[in-house]
Design brief:
Layout (H helix, E strand, L loop, with lengths): L1 E3 L2 E3 L14 H38 L17 H7 L2 H34 L4 H9 L6 H11 L6 H6 L9 H29 L3 H9 L4 H12 L1 H16 L3 H6 L13 H11 L3 H33 L1
Antiparallel strand pairs: 1-2
Length: 316
C-alpha cells in the first residue's frame, strides 16, 4: 500500500512479503503449555510409577496363582474372582468395613460441625479450642491406637473408671468395633472440623445481621443460613469420610495387637487382603479381592458425585 498525495493506492502482495505475525496471546499460550508440561512431568512420572504401574501389575497378578515367594505364576483366568465371590470371610470383612463406615460417617460429620460452631462463636481462648480439637489429627495412627488401647484397658484404663463400667472393650466382640469407632472419632475429627471452620468463616456476616434485623433467632439463622451455606462442604466431608472409612486398617489392627479381634469382629477388608497376601502367601488371590474392593470404592465415589451433581442441578 502506497500513499500519493491525498490518495491511497492498493497494490497486491508480493511473494516475498512477510506473513502476518501470529497474535501475541496465542504465542504466550503455546509457550505456557510447553513450559507447564515440565512442571507437571515429575508428578505424572511418580503417579505412573506408584499408582498406574501397581494397578496394572495387580490386575495381571489377579489372573494368576502368584505367591509371595516369587515362584513362576501360572495363569488361572477368573478362578480367583470366582473364589472371592464364594468366600464367606471376604464378605464378612466387607461387612465389618461397611458397618464401621455407617457408624463413623454420620457421627464424625455431626461432631465436626458442632465443634466448628463452638470454636467459631466462642470468644475467649478461641485459639486454644481450635488447637485442642485439631491436635489429635496430627498424631500417627499407631500412637492414637496405642493411647486408646491403654484407655480401654479394663483394669487400668480411664474409660471404665470414668464411666463406672467394667466393659471388656477389646475382648468382647459386641464392643470391639465400637472401640475402633471411638478411637477413629477422636483421632480424625480434627480434619473435618478444620474444613467446617474454614467454611463458617467464609459465610458473609451481613447475612446474619440482616436476619437478626428481621427478627430471626439463633435457631432460624442456623437452619436458614448456616446449614444451606455449608451444604457443599458437608458433601465433601461425607464423601471423604466414606472413602477413608471403607479403607480402615491401622487403628483396628493396632488396637487388637495386629490380630482380627475377638471372633474376627474387627477384621476389615484391607486387613483380610493383607492376610491373604502376606500370611497365606496368596498374592494372586489378594490382588483379585483388592481389585474387587477398588471397584466397590470407585462405584461409591461415582454414585456420590452423581448425587451431588443432581442436587446442584435441582437447586438451580
Amino acid at each position: 500500500m502506497t500513499a500519493t498525495g491525498a490518495r491511497t493506492v492498493l497494490r497486491p502482495a508480493r511473494t516475498g512479503d512477510a506473513a502476518p505475525a501470529a497474535p501475541a496471546t496465542s504465542v504466550r499460550r503455546g509457550q505456557g503449555l510447553q513450559h507447564g508440561g515440565w512442571f507437571v512431568a515429575p508428578f505424572l512420572a511418580l503417579f505412573a510409577l506408584f499408582v498406574v504401574w501397581p494397578l496394572l501389575r495387580g490386575l495381571y497378578l489377579s489372573f494368576t496363582d502368584a505367591n509371595v515367594s516369587g515362584d513362576h505364576a501360572s495363569f488361572v483366568g477368573l478362578d480367583n474372582y470366582r473364589e472371592a465371590l464364594d468366600d464367606p470371610l471376604m464378605w464378612e470383612a466387607l461387612g465389618h468395613s461397611a458397618y464401621f463406615t455407617l457408624l463413623v460417617v454420620p457421627c464424625i460429620t455431626v461432631l465436626a460441625f458442632l465443634l466448628a460452631m463452638l470454636a467459631h462463636h466462642i470468644e475467649r481462648g478461641k485459639w486454644l479450642w481450635r488447637l485442642c480439637f485439631f491436635t489429635p489429627f496430627l498424631l500417627p495412627s499407631t500412637v492414637a491406637a496405642n493411647l486408646w488401647q491403654w484407655l480401654f484397658n479394663p483394669g487400668t484404663g480411664m474409660v471404665n473408671h470414668v464411666l463406672g463400667l467394667e466393659t471388656p472393650w477389646l475382648t468382647d466382640k459386641s464392643y470391639a468395633m465400637l472401640a475402633v469407632v471411638v478411637t477413629t472419632l477422636w483421632w480424625t475429627v480434627g480434619f473435618s472440623f478444620l474444613l467446617y471452620l474454614a467454611a463458617l468463616q467464609n459465610i458473609p456476616a451481613h447475612l446474619y445481621e440482616a436476619a437478626a434485623l428481621d427478627g430471626a433467632n439463633a435457631w432460624h439463622r442456623a437452619v436458614r443460613i448456616t446449614l444451606p451455606m455449608l451444604r457443599a462442604i458437608t458433601g465433601l466431608v461425607v464423601t471423604l469420610q466414606i472413602l477413608a472409612s471403607l479403607q480402615v486398617f491401622d487403628q483396628a489392627v493396632v488396637l487388637q495387637d495386629f490380630g482380627p479381634g475377638p471372633e474376627g469382629s474387627t477384621r476389615t477388608f484391607v486387613q483380610y487382603t493383607l492376610e491373604q497376601g502376606f500370611t497365606s502367601y496368596r498374592v494372586g488371590y489378594a490382588s483379585a479381592i483388592s481389585l474387587i474392593f477398588f471397584v466397590l470404592i470407585a462405584a461409591v465415589a461415582l454414585v456420590r458425585m452423581w448425587l451431588l451433581r443432581t442436587r446442584e442441578e435441582d437447586g438451580r
